[in-house]
Description:
The structure is a single chain. The protein folds into 2 domains: 2-57, Winged helix-like DNA-binding domain superfamily/Winged helix DNA-binding domain (Arc Repressor Mutant, subunit A); 66-228, Beta-Lactamase. The protein contains 8 helices and 9 strands. It has helices at residues 14-21, 25-37, 54-65, 72-83, 124-130, 135-145, 158-171, 208-228, and strands at 12-13, 41-45, 48-51, 86-92, 97-104, 117-118, 173-181, 184-192, 198-207. Helix 1 packs across helix 2 (25-37). It is globular.
Amino acid sequence: MLDLFTAETPEWGVTAVAARLQLPKSTTFDVMASLAAIGMLQQTSGDRYRLGWRVLHISRRLMSSSCLDANANRRVAVLAHQLSAVVTIGAWDGQGVVCIANASTDGTEPIVTDAVHISGHTSALGKLLMAQLPWPTVEERIERSGLPKFTEKSVDDVNIFRAQLISARRDGVAMEYGETFPGQSCVAVGIYQRDHRAIAALSISVPTERLLSRSEEYCRIARRTARSLVIQNEVPPG
């Protein structure tokens, strides 16, 4: 239900939510009233609701309880400035790759905002994080959503995509060359918990020509930065 509330459709009424989710109106009313009572929704007028401020509180609590260093946003901004690149931290939320932090020194470059979903199959972040999932889970997602092309270079062949995931899981790094934005390419590495599970990933996006000539350098920088983002009591692999 909460997923219905977006920047494009920030306000919903009980009747519309019931119709969209195919739920009885009485059930929808009870659920939305309960969410409003705990601050997850706020009532605007009549039976209409918006997201409540408690969502932000829970978001901050999630960040503070994760293995990420409290200075992750600042570190991302500093690295973006040093490299003249777009630097992003993303995590898999069960439905796709969600942006946790993002920074760029050039407002004209592709940039996403926090909590926005990022392409799973074309982005390096998505490839790295989806590589951690069992292949049957990935197959189910492909059957449901397909592999839509964002550029002429976007992978749309299941076998090629699976090979990319195998490589990302084996090497701990994923790359994409112009699959999401023309002329922009990206390298991503995992951010690991103590159990060697990638709970997030960090990516560096630069013009394709630059990544082609400096891919090893950017891989080293990304890995070093990813390790620095993990709080001291967590031990990343390698």
